[in-house]
Amino acid sequence: MTGEMGHEPLLVAFDFDGTLTVKDSFNAFLKWRAGPRWALGVMRLTPSLIAYVFDRNRGKLKAAAVRQFLKGATVAQIENDARAFAEAFAPSLLRPDAVAVWRSWRAKGAKMVIVTASPDLIVAPFARGLGADMLIGTRLRCSDDGRILGGLDGNNCRAKEKVLRLREAFGPDVRLTAAYGDTSGDTEMLAIADEKGYRVFRGKPA
Question: Is 0.90 surpassed by the pTM of this model?
Answer without folding.
Answer: yes
